[in-house]
Fold these 2 entries.
Entry 1:
Amino acid sequence: MAALQFAFPSTAGSRRRPESRSTTRPARCTADRQALFNRIAPVYDNLNDLLSLGMHRVWKRMAVSWNEVREGDTAVDVCCGSGDLAFLLSEKVGISGKVIALDFSKEQLQIAATRQSAQSKACYKNIEWIEGDAADLPFPRSSFDAATIGYGLRNIVDRRKAMEEMYKVLKPGSKVSILDFNKSTSSLNSFSSSISCFFQDWMIDYIVVPIASGYTLADEYQYLKSSIKKYLTGKELEQLAREVGFSEAKFYEIGAGLMGNLVATR
Amino acid sequence: MVRRSGVLLKSAATGISSRLAEILVCPLTKQPLRMCEKTNSLISDSIGVSYPIVEWIPRLVPSDGIILQSDQDLNSSDSPQTNSS
C-alpha cells in the first residue's frame, strides 16, 4: 500500500518521541470523548484525507460492502461522525431505502447535515441524523437490515453495551460491519504483528500528532494511540460479538494490518 | 414539506419526518416517543422526559433529556400527531 510505505526511522539517533506538554486530561469518560470529537469536528474530514492519504475512503467502501446492504433496505450508521459511511450506505439503499445516522457529537452532525445539503444526489435525502449514544440506542428491536460503525467502537466506553444494543436493533440474519484501527496481537512469535504495531505507533508519533499539532489538536490525536492500545484485538472482537449473541463473527485485517473490520451476523 | 417520494410528511415546526418520529424510541425505556410541535421536542411519556429537536436533529442522548416537572408540563404538549400524506 503506497500510502503507508514510509521508511523506518533510525533508532541510533538521539531523537526522542514527541511528547505532549498539554495539561489536557485523558479522554476517559463519555463526556470527555464527546467534547474531543466536538473539538476536532471542523478539521476531521480534512485530517482523515491527509493522514490516510485518502485510503480511509477505500476502507469505508469495503466496510459497507461487507454488511451486504441492499437497495430498499433500512440501514443504520452508529458513530456516524461527519457522515462518510452514511453517504455510502445511502448510495446502496437508494431512494427507496432509509439511512439513520447516529452520533454523540453535535458538531460532527452539523457538518454531516451541511454536507448533505450540499449534495445533489437524490438518495442522500433519505439520511436522517440523530444525536444519540451508541450504548443507549433510540431504536426499537429489529429495526435495521444492515449496520455500520466506522472508527467508533474504539471510542465507546462501554463497548459490550454498545454491541448488545447493536444486536438488538438489527433484524435476524442482518450484519453489522465494524471498521476501526487494528490492535495487533504483538508477540515474539508474531514478527508481522510486531512490525504492524511498531509502524502504527511510529505513524501516530511522527506523522499523525505532528500534523494534528498544526491544527492545535495534538492532544486530541495523541488520544488515538492510547485508544488503540486499549481497544480489542480481532479475536477479542469476535469473541465479544458471539458473547452478546451474534451467530457469526469474523474479523478481517485490511490496510496492511493497520485497520481491521469485524463482520457480525445477528 | 412533502418528500419526493410523496409518502412522508415533514413536520413544518420540528423539521423531522413523521416516519422518523414513529421509529424513534426513548433511549432509556425503549418506549415510543410522542412528537410535540409546541415545545419542538420528543416526549417520553413513560418517564416524563422531553428530548429536544435542534435544527432538525433529535437529541436523544439520555443526558439531553429534560425532566418534565409537572403534569402541566406533560399536558401542555400537543396531542399525538396523526399522519397525513
Entry 2:
Amino acid sequence: MGGWAIAVHGGAGVDPNLPPQRQEEAKQLLTRCLNLGISALRSSLPAIDVVELVVRELESDPLFNSGRGSALTENGTVEMEASIMDGPKRRCGAVSGVTTVKNPISLARLVMDKSPHSYLAFSGAEEFAKQQGVEMVDNEYFITEDNVGMLKLAKEANSILYDYRIPIVGLESCGAAAESPILMNGLPISVYAPETVGCVVVDGQGRCAAATSTGGLMNKMTGRIGDSPLIGAGTYACDLCGVSCTGEGEAIIRGTLARDVAALMEYKELSLQDAADYVINKRLDEGKAGLIAVSKTGEVACGFNTNGMFRGCATEDGFMKVGIW
Amino acid sequence: MGWAIALHGGAGDIPKDLPPERRKPREATLRRCLEIGVAALKAHKSALDVVELVVRELENCPHFNAGRGSVLTTDGTVEMEASVMDGKTKNCGAVSGLTTVVNPISLARLVMEKTPHIYLAFDGAEAFAREQIDYTQPIKKAPKIAPVPEGDQIGTVGCVAIDTQGNLATATSTGGLVNKMVGRIGDTPIIGTGTYANNLCAVSATGKGESIIRATVGRDVAALMEYKGLSLEDAAAYVVEECAPKGTVGLVAVSATGEVTMAYNTTGMFRACATEAGHAELGIWSSESNE
C-alpha cells in the first residue's frame, strides 16, 4: 500500500484576469480544505467520510460554485446537485435540484446510506431531506451578490450568443468578453463560474472515494442537470481509484469521464496519470474539462485542458501542492 | 455488416407461467415494433430516427413500463424518464420527472437538439415540453391504468440500431421502479449507465436501476470492446455476468459491424431483434423463441 492521498478541486476554467487577491483567497481555501482532509486521514477516518467533510467545507465557503456561492439559474435562484461514491462496493448517492439543503453532498450521502435508491431530485430530494432532519435554509442563503452580478453579465452575453455551438460573432461589444476571448459553455470566462468542487481520497487502508458538488452552469435553464450528480460522468470510485471532474458538463457526460479513467486502469491497465491524460486528451473532443484522481496505491493525479483549474493535492509522504495554472 | 436492430421491453423476474393474456399483448407489441423498426431501416432512415420511433411505439403501448402504462410512485403519480444517444457524434439527451408528456423519448431528443444542455428534469423539463408544440402533446392528467399485478412490474423499454450508413443509436424510456420515492431517478436517463452509444456499439439496459448505475453498464460494454478488444457478445456477457448481481440487469446492443446481442442475468427479458443478414429473434426466456 502506498499510504493515503487526497486531492481537491474548485473548478476547471479560470479567468486569466482573475485578480491576485481572489487567486490568493482560492489557494487559501484549497489549503484549508486539504489540511482538514489530512487531519481526518491521520485520525484514520475512512475515505468516504473524508471526501464528505472536505466537500462540506467547500460548499459552506462562498468562494467556489457549490452550496453557498452557487451559480444562479436563469430565474436567479439556486439549484444544486452533488454525488458521492464509495469505492469498495461502488455504493453511490446523488441529488439534483436541491434548493434548501445547506450541504447537498451530505444529502447525497444520506441517499446512499439511508434510502433504497441512488439518486433523488427536486421535490423528492427536498422531502427526503426533511425526513432525515438535515440542516435546511432559505434559497437566499446560497445567493451571493457576486453571482447576482455575474448572472446579469451572463444574460447579456447569451443574448448575443444564442447557441454556444455556433461560432461567435459580435461578442466584442459585450463588456464582459472584451477582457478575454476564452469561452466555456458559451460564456466568456470572466462570467463563467467554474462549475464544481470535488474531493477524492484514498485512505490508509487503500479504500477510494470521490465526491462532487455544484450549483451548475450560470444562467442555466431551471431543471438542467449537469455532470456532477451523474455517476460515471462527474464522479466515480471503485477498488482501483476515485475520480471527480469539473468543466463543461455536456462534454463530461458525453465522455463519461470519471468512469473512463477507471476503465482505462481496469481494462487497459494504464497507470492513474496515464489514464487521466488519455481521458483529457482523447475523450473530450472539443470540450473543456479537468479532473482529479487518486489510486488505491496512494498516487494522486490531475489533468485539465482548460485555462487553469483550482486544485490541491497531498500524499502521506509529505508532498503537498496547491495551484491554479 | 448491414443494418441491425434490437429492442427490449424490460428484464426481470418474469414468471414462466405468465398467463397468456399478459404475455401475448407484449409479444405482439414487440413484433410490431420490430417490424416498424426494420421497415424504417430498410427505408434508410437514420439510426437515431429509428430508435426514437420504435421507443415511441413502445411508450404508447400500455403493457410496458414507459409512457402509457408507467408504474406509479409511492404517491400514486407517474414520473417518467428517458434518454437518447447518437453514436456518431455522442450527442445525447435525457429527461426525468415527466408527468404530462406523452412521449418522453421525443422530449429527450428535443433536449439534445434544441437546447445547449443534455439533461432536463421535473418542472424545468415540463416547462420546456410546453414550449415545444410539435412533437409532444402535454396531456392534462396521466391516463388511469389498472394497477399492475404484483411481480409484473418490469418493463423499461429500449431500442438500439445501426442504420444503412453504419451509424449507431440508442434510446431508453421508463416509468421507473414501482413504488419508488417521489423524485427517484434510475439508470435510464444517466448516460453511460442505462444508455450509451459511440461509434463502436449502442447499448440499452434494463433491470434494477441502482445496480445498472453502479456497474455503468452501457459505458462498460463499449469500454470492454474499446480497451480490451472484446467482441460485442463477449463484452455484453461479461458485464451482465460479472459486473452486476444476479437478477438485476439485461441489455440489448448492436455493434458497428452489424452484430446484435441480447444478454440478461434475470429470469427473462422481453426482447426482439433482427439483422439485415436475416437473423431474427423474439423471446422472453432463454433458448425459447415464442412464435
